[in-house]
Amino acid sequence: ESENKIASRMQKIIDLDKATFEVAHYRKDRSKVPLEISCRSTTWGNKKAILSVANDISERKQILEKLKESEKNLLDAQHLSQIGSWKWFVETNTVQWSEELCRINGHDPDLPVPLFSEMSSFYTPESWKRLNEAVTKAFNSGESYELELDLIRTDGAIRMTRAMGAVDYDVSGK
Question: What is the 8-class DSSP label of residue 123?
Fold first, then answer.
């Protein structure tokens, strides 16, 4: 590591009394191991000291790489099959759309997605009524649904879509 980077990290420990950072450690056999270093300033006797703990994060890095690859495969599969997905987090009234659902709807993925109650503008009135009823029924009964709906893209084009949904409960049953 460069002297500037080391000095910057030391200053951070001094300023904040703690710091966590990643480094590459090289073993005697020259193999590289990613480490997470957690540091805290302390007093040892009458002297200031820095207590550091190093953790091998090789497995975490491998898992993150597999997760990134899996996410890319999902994005590719959704794009190739023209299938989008969305989730409604009822407790916070927030909605997540996949990139492909944004594309299908003609919605800029860099902009916030509409709340569930605002999604009516993406459907014909009859389709929105049917979707809203199906989502409400699924939410109340736990039943899944499958509907054919007329979607209105942001450019005004109407597309026939198939909507399938199910309630996804967390570990506490919510």
Answer: B
Average pLDDT score over the chain? 91
| C-alpha span between 31 and 23 (Å, rounded) | 14
HSE of 170 in the Cβ direction (CA atoms, 13 Å)?
7
Give the DSSP H or E segment for 22. strand 18-26
The Cα 24–Cα 5 span in angstroms is 13
Distance between first and last Cα of the chain: 48
Give φ, ψ of 70 to 5 degrees.
Answer: -65, -40
Residues 140-162: pLDDT tens digits? 898 999 999 999 998 999 999 99
pLDDT at 83 over 80: yes
Whether residue 1 is predicted with pLDDT greater than 70 in this model: the reply is no
CA 144/CA 135 separation, integer angstroms: 8
3-state secondary structure 128-142: HHHHHHHHHHHHHHC
The pTM of the full predicted model, rounded to 2 decimals, is 0.68
> In one letter, which amino acid is 64?
L
Side-chain-side CA neighbours of 71 within 13 Å: the count stands at 8
